[in-house]
UniProtKB/TrEMBL annotation:
Organism per entry: Rubus argutus
Every Phytocyanin domain range: 23-125
Domain of life of the organism encoding this protein: Eukaryota
Gene3D superfamilies in alphabetical order: Cupredoxins - blue copper proteins
Similarity section: Belongs to the early nodulin-like (ENODL) family.
Protein name: Phytocyanin domain-containing protein
Amino acid sequence: MASFTGSFLTVFLAVVVANSSATEFQVGYDFGWQQPASNNTALYSQWASNNRFHVGDSLYFNYKNDSVLEVDKWGYYHCNITNPIIAFDNGKSIMKLDRSGPFYFISGVPDHCKNGQRLWVQVMDPHPISQTPPSIADPPEPYLAADSPAPSSSLGVAISNTPCSIVIAVLVTILASVCSSP
Ligand SMILES: *[C@@H]1O[C@H](CO)[C@@H](O)[C@H](O)[C@H]1NC(C)=O
Ligand SMILES: *[C@@H]1O[C@H](CO)[C@@H](O)[C@H](O)[C@H]1NC(C)=O
Ligand SMILES: *[C@@H]1O[C@H](CO)[C@@H](O)[C@H](O)[C@H]1NC(C)=O
Ligand SMILES: *[C@@H]1O[C@H](CO)[C@@H](O)[C@H](O)[C@H]1NC(C)=O
């Protein structure tokens, strides 16, 4: 019993540790951050829906002759570059996802933004356990949906409903059974 509990604990802790480390995501994979081809304007919303972002992760933007601006939702939908929250044009930019909720990024070249070079990601609370709901049915809005409604935050809410206290409770239970073994 003790050795079973011990190995379970080891696996459990390994999963927690492996999943609590921050991830750096390369935006657009090898394509990087550039204006998508005209037949591929949903490239960045597809990229975003293929990944899961948690607080503490970061986004790596790799680009040439371009820039990346973090903007608010309005700036994202209107490709408005006048009031960026942060702006970078150094070709290799790292944006830390330091809170949960939506983040919006656009190219500082207005035509590029209008042609699909913009990214919206939904950042979830830190969630160390791998048993999360499958990533389905919550893709970012398609590109040309200019005045579409607010991005749903239901996924983030669902995930944050598994509170850390459950993790702690499970750990305490396991540790208690290990420690009480002769
Ligand atoms: C876009 O068109 C190019 C050829 O011009 C093709 O190679 C590529 O697969 C197309 N991409 C998509 C997403 O349809
Ligand atoms: C970037 O701009 C410079 C000068 O304007 C040009 O020589 C270079 O080819 C451009 N690079 C890309 C990848 O467009
Ligand atoms: C961008 O937004 C600002 C206000 O934040 C506004 O004054 C400006 O006209 C807008 N520009 C465009 C191109 O919509
Ligand atoms: C970490 O979590 C992700 C999903 O969030 C999962 O795919 C991955 O297998 C987990 N890592 C480990 C070591 O279990």
